[in-house]
Amino acid sequence: MCGRFAMDDTVNELITEFVESTGLSPEDWRADWKPSYNIRPTDPVPILLETLTDRRDPTSETVRRAELAQWWLTPSFSKELRSRNPLFNARSETVTEKASFREPVKRQRAIIPAIGYYETHTEGSTKVPYFIHPPEGLLLFAGLYSWWADPTLAPDNPLRWHLTTTILTREAVGDVAWIHDRTPVTIPRDQLETWVDPATLGDRAFVEAMVDAATPVAESLQFHRIASPIRGDSVEMIQPV
């Protein structure tokens, strides 16, 4: 599971590189976000995605975008923005089967960058928190996104549409499996474009191949114990104790 994670301003470098590669400037995407060391479900997070110019034609040109999304995916068929079911994580093993995820996984895949995430390990009767991070650089979480239209607002109301996202998880491998049996799917940098490409149909074989490609990153993750409980929003949160 991934229920809390952290982003610092180094994420901006990746976002800028992503959008500028298609001739866009940072001003061309919504930059109204701020770094946080305590991102929680339903918080707004920047995601990287690629869309088809004609969504009905997989061969049409694509456009790269960076957008803010609610970290709690809301399927288009939902009657409310935040359902009671926790949809901030999606199991990679069943993502092509579950009603909430099987449409987004086909062509609405995204990258959610992070410097690391939090997990707790039960030791006796105590839950001990850890910060999990790569040896260097950023983690690229495999994500899905979905647009939800508020049925109470008029079609021409700009507040009607909400962009939402979720993080894929997998069985934990490597040293972090000692902390928890699940971990985010961490896409390697050279597979970023493959994951977000909407021209590629996201079927079960594709998801499984991307999870396999992400295994070396998952196996390289490092961790250290941090102060308990996890609260506040400062760089001190991720410091080892």
TrEMBL record:
The keyword DNA damage applies. Its EC number is 3.4.-.-. The keyword DNA-binding applies. Keywords: Covalent protein-DNA linkage, DNA damage, DNA-binding, Hydrolase, Lyase, Protease. It comes from the Bacteria. InterPro entries: SRAP, SRAP-like. Belongs to the SOS response-associated peptidase family. This is Abasic site processing protein. It comes from Antiquaquibacter oligotrophicus.
